[in-house]
Design goal:
Layout lengths: L5 H16 L1 E7 L3 E9 L18 E10 L3 E2 L2 E2 L2 H19 L5 E6 L5 E10 L7 H9 L10 E13 L2 E4 L9 E12 H13 L3 E7 H9 L2 H6 L1 E6 L4 E7 L2 E8 L3 H12 L3 H11 L12 E3 L7 H4 L2 E3 H26 L8 E5 L8 H9 L2 E4 L18 H11 L2 H4 L9 H16 L1
Helix pairs in contact: 2-4, 5-12, 7-8, 7-10, 10-11
């Protein structure tokens, strides 16, 4: 477990440096848009508020926000470095201009990169009478890490449950009396190359990467209310090029995955079906799209428009029922894939089976009704939590990832549990402390 935290530690140091300066940028690099929020911290230490990302929203305020069309990103991964770099620069510069301040550090979120979830377990004897940080550190380092394959990197590693002797369900065991401490941990790995491409792209924009998160995870943090995170719920983040899935219970993520399809695929189907450009297809989907046809939709005609120069071609009309007939099969396919992943994760065994739809593509009319039929559970449309200073234009489902990333920046669960592990070799630690004293005093 030692090396799992090395890259996170390096980014944590950058995040702390950014927070000392008081300003950090949030970057949601999606397939359809790049969103940037600039946060100003008021100097309070967020780790004092409690454990995890729902402990409180104090400590920061959004002072700048901007979005731009994403180019060079497909299925949530960087495909064209130059185009993605230009999109990131455009969004960051516009947000900086609104905030009136320069930003050097960013915390980024991305979907895709083939996430895989693992459940780890470990046990360790309690050294003293009460559990302290050293005992927690040793039980974390005792978790057996599986062979997750070459070229993959750990993105999130969070303890979701502690067991002290025969008492399970502990959130924080420190200070309690017991003999044997156990831990259940959730670990999420992603393709290392996808992370490296994104990190390199951000570096080319003259920015320092101060943190990384999965968009499925941070969307769940912002779109699920506290009871849903506690009792068990799934968040389905329907983006442009990928649909993220995360399952929460006891306020911790226990499973994450993604489907390599999203709203852009629906737009592409409309473009092919009606023989129009992608821009025209996006406009038709936004203004007239839907998933449930009624009798009146056969009579409601949509003027397609266009700029080909052929008068008859540009003056074509299509009924809304035909448009729904093009859109519905693709959305059904996405939801069927999500259903398969929920079944594989054992979602049926949770005490509560609430499903929350969020993301830009979740705004298609009729999606909640169709999702209820396919997923067979309680489904609701989710909007992100309100945070201080967030513009009205950034409060829709499409900004769930960006808002969740703000909460993640202020209350990072991964880092809260990052103790110095392991602590077996005391002489080495003593030598390290002596060397530090020597450097500071001479």
């Amino acid at each position: 477990m030692i090396e799992l935290y090395e890259s996170q530690r390096a980014m944590r140091n950058m995040r702390r440096a950014a927070m000392q300066r008081g300003v950090v940028a949030i970057l949601d690099v999606g397939s359809s848009k790049v969103a940037c929020l600039v946060l100003r911290f008021d100097g309070t230490d967020p780790s004092d508020d409690g454990i995890g990302s729902l402990a409180g929203q104090s400590g920061f305020r959004v002072i700048g926000a901007a979005t731009t069309r994403s180019r060079g990103v497909r299925h949530g991964e960087v495909h064209d470095m130059g185009a993605t770099e230009r999109s990131i620069r455009t969004a960051v510069q516009a947000a900086q201009k609104m905030a009136g301040i320069r930003v050097d550090h960013v915390i980024a979120a991305f979907s895709g990169a083939e996430p895989r979830s693992y459940g780890l377990a470990g046990k360790a004897e309690v050294m003293g009478t009460t559990v302290d940080e050293q005992d927690v550190a040793r039980v974390l380092s005792a978790c057996d890490v599986p062979d997750f394959g070459y070229g993959r990197e750990v993105l999130h590693a969070q303890p979701v449950n502690f067991v002290l002797d025969h008492r399970s369900g502990l959130i924080d065991p420190r200070g309690q009396i017991g003999n044997e401490l156990g831990c259940d941990m959730h670990m999420l790995t992603v393709e290392g190359q996808a992370i490296q491409n994104l990190a390199h792209c951000i570096k080319r924009c003259d920015l320092e990467l101060a943190g990384l998160a999965s968009s499925g995870y941070v969307s769940g943090v912002s779109a699920l209310v506290e009871d849903e995170q506690e009792l068990g719920a799934a968040c389905i983040d329907m983006g442009g090029g990928a649909t993220g899935l995360s399952i929460f219970i006891k306020k911790h993520m226990i499973y994450a995955d993604s489907v390599r399809m999203g709203g852009d695929h629906v737009t592409r189907d409309i473009s092919k079906g009606l023989k129009v450009s992608m821009a025209t297809a996006e406009r038709i989907k936004t203004f007239y799209g839907g998933l449930v046809a009624t009798g009146i939709d056969d009579r409601e005609m949509i003027e397609i428009g266009g700029d080909t120069g052929d008068w008859e071609h540009d003056r074509r009309t299509v009924s809304r029922a035909e448009l729904i007939g093009i859109m519905r099969p693709r959305v059904e396919e996405i939801l069927e894939e999500v259903r398969m992943q929920l079944d594989a994760a054992g979602f049926d065994h949770l005490p509560s089976q609430q499903i929350v739809l969020t993301g830009g593509a979740s705004q298609i009319p009729g999606l909640d009704g169709l999702a209820t039929k396919i997923l067979g559970q309680q489904v609701r449309l989710g909007r992100p939590l309100r945070v201080h200073g967030l513009p009205q234009a950034a409060t829709g489902p499409g900004f769930a990832t960006a808002v969740g990333l703000c909460l993640f920046a202020a209350h990072p669960q991964d880092e809260w549990w990052d103790f110095e592990i392991p602590v077996d070799r005391l002489p080495a630690r003593s030598l390290k402390r002596a060397m530090q004293w020597f450097r500071e005093n001479w």
